[in-house]
Every structure is written in structure tokens, then in C-alpha cells.
Design goal:
This protein is an all-alpha fold and about 55 residues long. It contains three helices and no strands.
Length: about 55
């Protein structure tokens, strides 16, 4: 994650917040960014394949 994105995330929070809320938000933003990067690279799994994988659980 880039520093600017982390700063923007902090600015979106209220003036007073729990540290846990900030950490959860930063992790969420990071995971979304990772997912979007994988999508751009074509590293996805089709819905049908996921359904097949779920059957094995």
C-alpha cells in the first residue's frame, strides 16, 4: 500500500476512532487493491470453477 492511500484512509475516519477500526480499514483497502490487481492480470477463477470447488467441501 502506498503512503498516500493510507493517509487518505485515515482522513476518512472520524476525528476520534479506535485503533482497531483503522487497522481493519487499512487491511480491507489493501485486500481490495490486491484483488483489483489480480483482476487486471487475469488471475481470476470462474464462477463455475468455484462452484465445483465448493462441492468438494
Amino acid at each position: 500500500m502506498k503512503r498516500d492511500k493510507a493517509i487518505d484512509t485515515v482522513k476518512e475516519l472520524p476525528k476520534e476512532f479506535e485503533l482497531d477500526a483503522l487497522l481493519e480499514r487499512l487491511i480491507f483497502v489493501e485486500k481490495v487493491e490486491q484483488g483489483l490487481a489480480q483482476l487486471k492480470k487475469g488471475k481470476t477463477t470462474s464462477h463455475e470453477k468455484v462452484k465445483e470447488m465448493a462441492k468438494k467441501w
